[in-house]
Design brief:
With 72 residues, the protein is α+β, with helices and mostly antiparallel strands. The chain is built from two helices and four strands. The protein is 15% helix and 17% strand. It has a two-stranded antiparallel sheet. It comes from Mobiluncus mulieris. This is Type II toxin-antitoxin system PemK/MazF family toxin.
């Protein structure tokens, strides 16, 4: 899973949503993230790569596979 996001877009309020259904919390260091963040897997959408400045990092396929499988 590629991480192509703006880390600065997340605030502390968003981190509280990590335990909500359809969300996965990632900790600093995973996928080269500099701080904790939340991934919303219930609202996947397609975004052109050109809209992102750079790649932050990559998560190994099995990093959160169990959590995504439990959601489905």
């Amino acid at each position: 899973m590629n991480i192509l996001a703006d880390e600065g877009a997340l605030g502390k309020t968003s981190l509280r949503l990590a335990k909500a259904p359809g969300n996965i919390g990632l900790t600093a260091g995973e996928g080269n993230l500099s701080r904790d963040c939340v991934v919303n897997i219930s609202q996947i959408l397609v975004v052109r790569r050109s809209r992102f400045a750079s790649r932050i990092g990559v998560l190994p396929y099995n990093t959160r596979l169990r959590q995504t499988r439990d959601f489905a």
